[in-house]
Amino acid sequence: MNNAIISWQAHRGGGEYEAPDNTMGANRYAWGLGGIPEADVRSTKDGVIVCLHDATLARTTLAPDEIKDIPVSELTFEEVSKWDAGAKFDEKFRGERVPALEDMFLEMQGRPEHMAYLDLKDVDLRQLGALIDQYGVNRQVIFTHNIQNNCIEMKRIAEGVKSMLWVGGDPERIKNTFQSALESGFRGVDQVQIHLNGDSGEQWPYEIDIEFLQYALAETAKVDVDLEVLPFRFNERSISRLLSLGIRWYATDEPARFLQCVNAWRGHG
Q1: pTM for the structure as a whole
Q2: What's the pLDDT score for residue 235?
Q3: Of residues 11, 114, 145, 195, which has the active-site annotation?
Q4: Counts for the chain of helices (H) and strands (E), in that order
Q5: Which of 53, 114, 145, 195 is catalytic?
Q6: For a designed S-S bond to 93, which of 86, 102, 142, 175 qualifies (C-beta 3.0 to 4.6 A apart)?
Q7: Could you tell me which residue ranges the GP-PDE domain spans (predicted)?
Q8: Is 11 a known active-site residue?
Q9: Burial 108-145 (b: 16+ CB within 10 A, else e)
Q10: In CATH, what number does 7-267 get?
């Protein structure tokens, strides 16, 4: 069992701690480790789809005060991409910029092993679908959002694209949202991601109870839908327990440390 294929996405590309999120450096980092980077997508004033989690440049770039707090939807791509997006994270990433989504697609073309999650922030779905079609990366893209109808629409627009419904909030909200998706037959959904909040303690560390995860795993397996979890905090013990439950898809903010935990689990088998 411990030789099972474990698939994972790097939240925001490189995760919160290991690479500057939503940069090409982060994407390459995740691909290099064997994972799938996630890019948050939003549009600039002149209609360029960029990879950026926040609505502004303030957190991740060296944009000056007169620019950093202006929504990127009110800036041109030239104004967005001119500022360093790596040095605030670590000097070794100096020179990174906010990339156009096309930059990511260019490195995916002809490389089917390079996949990407695209998390909808502020983009016209038809424009996004047209760009995916233009670069022919449809089968390498997993579109993700927390509204199921957007997953349904994206799959209708761009043939071959997969979708993931991410489910967050408190345990009651997570369970209710999952149940609604289940009752729909998981229409338009290839994966469901459940956020796991908790403190990574010695006992079961997550607010979502283990019985619900077992239930969710069983129900998704019946219809060939992947169950993915995002444990915001984890240690070797908690990852081992999740893996031993049979969960094979993960998202992580710490790709290298996550892989260390996976390898430790494999070594115990």
Answers
A1: 0.95
A2: 93
A3: 11
A4: 11, 9
A5: 53
A6: 86
A7: 6-269
A8: yes
A9: beeeeebbbbbbbbebebeebbebbeebebeebbbbbb
A10: 3.20.20.190
